[in-house]
């Protein structure tokens, strides 16, 4: 699994962080998404998929 | 001579009034009329207070698609925008939730930092103390008592005041004015006056923060005013938005959620007996889905033709995306009318979807987790002090809830 994020689209809802804390973080100054783990291990795949599904700005893309 | 009737016009002619009434005795369920529309198809027409007939979108998937579509505008000043109420004389000024990108994004990003997950988590112990102190006062005070006045409203008001840097001592003033603003049945003049009161108040406060900045959200905005990045009236406008949104919604979730749990004793017992953060978090999501306290729908206007389910929404036509019925969409949530705190309800659209999704949602979630995990455990005998039929519901507001909830223990 490969993950990419679009920081320009991000609206800082933080839901990706709640869903998958090892993979996503937020910038201190404005809460915009920071990708910690571009190739997360299989055991995090479900959480990452959930993060992409709940992102209101559709800023998370996943390639299997 | 025969004339052909445009099917869309014909549908508009028989469009039902919106908002619709809930069924008697079902205070937690969306209006039955909405359910009928959801079963009929993806798009329906409704008639608003001004005679306009925007599209009503009832399906969960369609709402998420449209709320993420750049051809859909949130700009209240565009012709065709389905307004909730008449425009007050002279207007009220518009905050970023009623603007489109890039202006929306520019303003929103100025206030996102305090709502980041880690910052919100750092506030949790402080919120726990607020909740515990209020419960101490509740237990020491009169019994029965109105839970709205004694608990549901003070919790989020104290929290948002602390975050913004608004003196809580002024809460009677801003709560009275914000009640008027979100009530659909007041005159445009009354709404304008209430809004003017709050703008004046926030503008004075902004002046203080510009002169003496401290570590709070309004001081952060004051810094941007000083730096020339933000107009002072925009800063006051944002302050009003955050102050109202920060207490009205969560207060109603606390009181209405408690009433819903009283009506579902098995579910209340789950919360009373657990300290599992996962169950508490899932309970909060399920109550947000089930109660959908924002029940006037997300309002938008199409800026280009959009095809959906074989129909075409024309540029300039209004759209209402009814999140209450979307949260009861049986294609997404099995047995949607059942309150089930154990289900995975995280995909609900109680906070909306798209770039305008609620900015304060991490704070709201954390407050509700603390409240639902504390109130029923600390007062295990908490119960209603009157019958359901006697409880006054906010059918007339843009935020749904109860005006009063008498409780005893």
Automatic annotation (TrEMBL), chain A:
It comes from Streptomyces antimycoticus. This is Ferredoxin. Pfam families: Fer4_15. InterPro entries: 3Fe4S_ferredoxin, Fe-S_cluster_ET. Keywords: 3Fe-4S, Electron transport, Iron, Iron-sulfur, Metal-binding, Transport. It comes from the Bacteria. Its cofactor is [3Fe-4S] cluster. GO terms for molecular function: 3 iron, 4 sulfur cluster binding; electron transfer activity; iron ion binding. Ferredoxins are iron-sulfur proteins that transfer electrons in a wide variety of metabolic reactions.
Automatic annotation (TrEMBL), chain B:
GO terms for molecular function: heme binding; iron ion binding; monooxygenase activity; oxidoreductase activity, acting on paired donors, with incorporation or reduction of molecular oxygen. It holds the Pfam family p450. The keyword Iron applies. PROSITE patterns: CYTOCHROME_P450. InterPro entries: Cyt_P450, Cyt_P450_B, Cyt_P450_CS, Cyt_P450_sf. CDD domains: CYP105-like. Residues 1-24 are annotated as: Disordered. Keywords: Heme, Iron, Metal-binding, Monooxygenase, Oxidoreductase. The keyword Nucleus does not apply. Belongs to the cytochrome P450 family. This is Cytochrome P450.
């Amino acid at each position: 699994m490969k993950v990419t994020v679009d920081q320009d689209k991000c609206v800082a809802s933080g839901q990706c962080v709640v869903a998958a804390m090892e993979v996503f973080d937020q910038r201190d100054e404005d809460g915009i998404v920071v990708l910690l783990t571009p190739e997360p291990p299989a055991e995090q795949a479900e959480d990452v998929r959930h993060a992409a599904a709940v992102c209101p700005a559709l800023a998370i893309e996943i390639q299997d | 001579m025969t004339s052909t009737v445009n099917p869309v016009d014909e549908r508009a002619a028989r469009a039902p009034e919106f908002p619709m009434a809930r069924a008697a005795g079902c205070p937690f369920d969306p209006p039955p009329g909405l359910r009928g529309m959801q079963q009929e198809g993806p798009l329906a027409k409704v008639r608003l207070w001004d005679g306009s007939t925007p599209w009503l979108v009832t399906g969960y998937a369609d709402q998420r698609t449209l709320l993420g579509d750049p051809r859909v505008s949130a700009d209240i000043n565009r012709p065709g925008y389905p307004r909730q109420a008449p425009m007050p004389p002279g207007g009220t000024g518009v905050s970023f939730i009623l603007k489109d990108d890039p202006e929306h994004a520019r303003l929103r990003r100025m206030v996102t930092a305090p709502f980041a997950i880690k910052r919100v988590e750092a506030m949790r112990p402080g919120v726990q103390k607020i909740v515990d102190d209020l419960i101490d006062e509740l237990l020491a005070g009169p019994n029965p008592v109105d839970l709205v006045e004694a608990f549901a409203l003070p919790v989020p008001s104290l929290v948002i005041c602390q975050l913004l840097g608004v003196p809580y001592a002024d809460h009677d003033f801003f709560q009275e004015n914000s009640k008027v603003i979100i009530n659909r049945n007041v005159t445009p003049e009354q709404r304008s006056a209430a809004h003017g009161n709050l703008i004046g108040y926030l503008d004075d406060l902004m002046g203080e923060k510009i002169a003496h900045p401290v570590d709070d959200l309004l001081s952060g905005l004051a810094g941007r005013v000083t730096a020339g990045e933000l107009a002072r009236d925009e800063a006051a406008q944002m302050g009003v938005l955050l102050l109202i949104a920060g207490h009205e919604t969560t207060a109603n979730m606390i009181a209405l959620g408690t009433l819903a749990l009283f009506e579902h004793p098995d579910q209340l017992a789950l919360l009373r007996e657990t300290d599992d953060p996962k169950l508490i978090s899932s309970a909060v999501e399920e109550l947000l889905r089930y109660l959908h306290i924002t029940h006037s729908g997300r309002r938008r206007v199409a800026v280009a033709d959009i095809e959906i389910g074989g129909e075409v929404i024309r540029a300039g036509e209004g759209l209402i995306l009814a999140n209450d019925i979307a949260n009861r969409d049986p294609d997404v949530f099995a047995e949607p009318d059942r309150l089930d705190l154990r289900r995975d309800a995280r995909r609900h659209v109680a906070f909306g979807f798209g770039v305008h999704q609620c900015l304060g949602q991490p704070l709201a979630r954390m407050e509700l987790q603390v409240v639902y995990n504390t109130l029923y455990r600390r007062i295990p005998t908490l119960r209603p002090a009157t019958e359901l039929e006697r409880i006054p519901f906010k059918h007339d507001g843009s935020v749904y809830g109860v005006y009063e909830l008498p409780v005893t223990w």
